[in-house]
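Running this now, will post back.
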Amino acid sequence: MFETRPIPDRVEAVRESHAPDTLVFDCKRDFETLPPAQAEDLGLLVDALEPASYPATWLPDDAPTVLEHYVSSDFTIGMPGDGSIVWTRQTEPPIVIVKPRIEGSPDSFVDFLLAEAFVQLGLEESEQFIGFFEESYRDLDAAVALDPNATYQVAAALYDGWVGLQTRDEFATWPGDHPELADAWQDAGNRLEDRVAGLPRAVARGDTSFADATELACAAIKHAIELPPPFAALDTDAYRDHGPEYAIRWAEKTFDVFADES
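Update: finished.
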């Protein structure tokens, strides 16, 4: 199910700087969340397992089942929206897992995603948004006038954006230290610019859902792309400094505007 993945020297240099003990594996099957039996197989490859667990009272009554499983004592690796590469510190040492869906992507982009995972691990922040919002997730749920799955998507996006405010400071040093990775970071950002710029119009026309727009805009933060309103308010030092409180206030203001316009 899992095979050790060799990584090139330019990525190895980032691992040594940010998460030197991390193991990297290819997974033979795609997944959003690893089935429990397969997740437990990781115990054969690491020294210890310590599943994440959070109070169930942090969740609204209609929270998606996958989120209920994550906050429980179940050993849960991967969540919807995590992308092609996932990492966890629920193992000792930490691990990064590369999904088969990444096949066909340019090697430079894969290298960037791996390097990004090591930088994120080095931040020592929660690997999922519930550890960021904690009990205030119920406040976010009350502020976001969407169904539970869309609210989950918005929460995951907001956390991704907050992490991106931190990781991009590291990425900005790469032109001197890791030029090939810097080029991949810049190229990925360039590919997002036109899509991000057109988000308000796409949402207004109904071509893009608000949750999808939030996900794309927040993904762009790590690339230092200029965001249109209302997402520009997330690309701020205030968000980086105040985190969940700021995100919830942003959601309240944003949906108040939507309500006034409807």
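The longest strand covers residues 23-27. More later if anyone needs it.
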